[in-house]
Structures are given as structure tokens and as C-alpha cells.
């Protein structure tokens, strides 16, 4: 059973507009959430994270929102750029565990010029 | 280099053969993780090492999979008697210590079983 779900396999956005990537989770023990970005033939690279004690974290064009009651988080990219085109993975971790990340299946973002 | 290094980048082998995949973590990182990504799937945790502690093997899919980490640095993931369902990208990550949330990934080994 998937503990981290990304229900949209793909998303297409026009350059300059906002990209919103969504992620849902089921395990209430998760206390830290991360977004990774992955280009083809490369490993995932860390993008942004959020602790469960916060509801928002912002880093430049990237903002992650966490709604604990809904067990939902989202990544906002604004303005979107063609170089943002990649697969985005949502990941979660249970701080009481030994540290392995639980990943969603990813959302492929395409930003069109 | 400064990042996690994995080799080979690609491996094609026949069903039934054994394969070894190598991971060289970032210098000074004590925690090392192996994940795999099958086609259309997310990353699946396999095994992790923390310093000299016994590894957490809870994610290994079968006893054909094993891993070692020598000297607390380089790790080797071995798959014996490979099957077609083992075809995937095998990713290694390291972090400063277990529980350090940011894990740094290598570019992976793409394994294809014919």
C-alpha cells in the first residue's frame, strides 16, 4: 500500500505561469517531507523540504505547503521556467525511523516556452 | 568528485548471472542507502548502512540481494541469479548521519536483464 501518493503522472504548464505539484500521504508518523527533482539519466537532487511543525517553506521560486489535517502537501513553482521540466518526487520520512525516505511515483512537469 | 559516484552507469546481463553494483558515497557521510526505481515507479528503499552498525536490510526484496560496506565507505550491492524483474535503476544515496533528512543521490546504475 502506497504511503506517499502523487496522483498526477504529468503536468504541462506555460512558461511564466505557476506550477502546482501535489502529494498526499497516509502515515501520520511522517514528520518531514522533501521534494526532489530528477532529470533523465541523473540521480534525484534535493529541492526543498518542510517539517511537520510548519505549514509553509519558501526558497526562491519554490514554495512547499503542508496541510497536516488533510495529509496533503504541494510544491509551487512560480514563475515556471523551461529548465524546471523534470520529474518531481515527493518523499516523506518518519523521524522515529532509521532514516529511509518513502517516495511517491513522481510527476513529470513540462514547462513550455 | 564531490558527489556520490556509482558504477557502472549501465549494465546489461543475461538472466541467471550475478551482478555487482558499486557506490562511493560523499566523503565523510556515515549513512549510505540503496534504492531502486523500476519503470513508472517511485524509489523503493532496499538497504541502509550507518557507520559500523548492522545494516537495515528490511527493504531487500529477496535473499538474492545482498550488500556490503567496507571500511565505512564504498558499498557494493550484489544481485545473484538475476531475474528479469530485477531490471531497474539502482540508486545510491548518502547523508551525514542517519536521520539527516537530506540524502544526496548518485546518478544510478541502469540494470537490464535479458
Write the layout of secondary structure elements.
The complex is a heterodimer of chains A (113) and B (114).
Chain A lengths: L3 E2 L4 E5 L4 E7 L6 E7 L6 E7 L4 E4 L2 E6 L4 E6 L8 E8 L8 E2 L3 E6 L1
Parallel strand pairs in A: 2-11
Antiparallel strand pairs in A: 1-3, 3-8, 4-5, 4-9, 6-7, 7-8, 9-10, 9-11
Chain B lengths: L4 E3 L2 E4 L5 E6 L6 E7 L5 E8 L14 E5 L5 E5 L8 E8 L8 E2 L3 E5 L1
Parallel strand pairs in B: 2-10
Antiparallel strand pairs in B: 1-3, 3-7, 4-5, 4-8, 6-7, 8-9, 8-10
**Radius of gyration of chain A, taken over Cα atoms and rounded to an integer in Å:** 13 Å
User: Which oligomeric state applies?
Assistant: heterodimer
Number of helices of chain B: 0
Q: Which spans of chain B of ≥5 residues are poorly predicted at pLDDT below 50?
A: none
Largest sheet of chain A at a glance? 6 strands, mixed
Which sheet architecture does the biggest sheet of chain B show?
A: 6 strands, mixed
The count of β-strands of chain B is: 10
Secondary-structure element order of chain A, as H and E?
A: EEEEEEEEEEE
**Percent of residues of chain B in beta strands?**
over 45%
Q: Estimate the global geometry of chain A from the Cα principal axes.
A: globular
- Low-confidence blocks of residues of chain A: none
Amino-to-carboxy terminus distance of chain B: 32 Å
Q: How is this structure best described in words?
A:
Helices cover 0% and strands 53% of the residues of chain A. Chain A has strands at 4-5, 10-14, 19-25, 32-38, 45-51, 56-59, 62-67, 72-77, 86-93, 102-103, 107-112. In chain A, the strands form 2 sheets. In chain A, strands 2, 4, 5, 9, 10 and 11 form a 6-stranded mixed β-sheet that branches. In chain A, strands 1-3-8-7-6 form a 5-stranded antiparallel β-sheet, with no helix packed on it. In chain A, a hairpin with a 4-residue loop joins strand 7 and strand 8 (72-77). In chain B, 0% of the residues lie in helices and 46% in strands. Chain B has strands at residues 5-7, 10-13, 19-24, 31-37, 43-50, 65-69, 75-79, 88-95, 104-105, 109-113. In chain B, strands 2, 4, 5, 8, 9 and 10 form a 6-stranded mixed β-sheet that branches. Chain B is an all-beta fold and 114 residues long. The chains are: A mainly beta (113), B mainly beta (114). Chain A binds chain B through residues 4, 6, 32, 34, 36, 41-46, 49, 89, 91, 93, 95, 98-106, and chain B through 4, 6, 31, 33, 35, 40-45, 48, 50, 56, 59, 91, 93, 95, 98-108.
